[in-house]
TrEMBL record:
Protein name: Fimbrial chaperone protein
Segments forming domain Pili assembly chaperone N-terminal: 39-149
Naturally occurring in which organism (per UniProt): Kushneria avicenniae
Transmembrane segments: none
Signal peptide positions (record): 1-26
GO cellular component term, pick one: outer membrane-bounded periplasmic space
Keywords recorded for this protein, A-Z: Signal
GO BP: any one term: cell wall organization
Length: 244
């Protein structure tokens, strides 16, 4: 049974805010759950719930992109292996809408495939009766990770931290923490510390299977420090250092 208080605690953090005109500010008005959906050969469809917490109707567009990581960054490409239904919804104030995520292609034989679900709020320009030159329009974008898994993934996920290593690199006169994931599944990094220096108390980010990501380091991080992180919501662990 849906528990509004529980869902509120796991409110999806705003991934990005695209301003259609300068000076616009807005609070998040859409609740999305679950925030870590998965699909597999055994479960090719899963519900995604959207709830409108605003006092006006919300029109939302749902799209799913294949997610890869190249050159330390994220790359999103159109695909049709996983489809949302319906792809566009209008939700009345206080109501919620079921969107079905369906795997139309084959699940991976090993490891996992990564996707990003983008939910965009579409401004209701037609009902805005203010003069065009006085309107401040904005669009909220929410981003949810989606993974299509193979049967071996549960075991792989439990041991994901063993596939990680890290190094400090210099680029353009700046230092970065670069984390390599040599394993077959993604890692979600939270509560990341280098000795007494906090790099992220909440979410630092994801590193997909067989990929690398990097983040800028503060000036008070020194060589020889120990990197500790929570990997996929397990107990905090010390990550293996490589390089000089």
């Amino acid at each position: 049974m849906f528990n509004p208080l529980s869902a509120l605690r796991t409110l999806l953090l705003l991934s990005s805010l695209t301003l259609m005109a300068s000076g616009a500010l807005a609070a998040s008005s859409v609740l999305i759950w679950p925030i870590n959906p998965t699909l597999s050969a055994e479960q090719k469809a899963r519900p995604l719930w959207l709830e409108n917490q605003a006092n006006v109707p919300a029109t939302l567009q749902i799209r799913i992109f294949r997610w890869q990581q190249r050159d330390q960054g994220n790359d999103y490409q159109p695909q049709d292996d996983v489809l949302p239904s319906p792809p566009v919804v209008t939700i009345a104030p206080g109501d919620r809408q079921l969107v079905r995520l369906t795997l139309t292609g084959a699940a991976p034989g090993t490891g996992e495939d990564a996707y990003r679900i983008l939910v965009d709020e579409i401004p209701d320009v037609a009902s805005d009766r203010r003069p065009a030159n006085s309107r401040v329009q904005f669009r909220m974008r929410y981003s949810v990770p989606l993974f299509v898994t193979s049967p071996a993934v549960p075991e792989d996920t439990e041991r994901a931290d063993r596939s990680l290593n890290w190094e400090i690199v210099k680029e353009g006169g700046k230092r970065y923490l670069r984390i390599h994931n040599e394993g077959p599944v993604h890692v979600r990094l939270t509560r990341v510390h280098m000795d007494q220096v906090t790099l992220a108390e909440g979410l630092l980010g994801y590193v997909l299977a067989h990929a690398s990501r990097q983040w800028p380091l503060p000036d008070n991080v020194r060589a020889g420090q120990t990197l500790k992180a929570t990997v996929n919501a397990a107990e905090p662990v010390v990550l293996r250092h490589v390089g000089s």
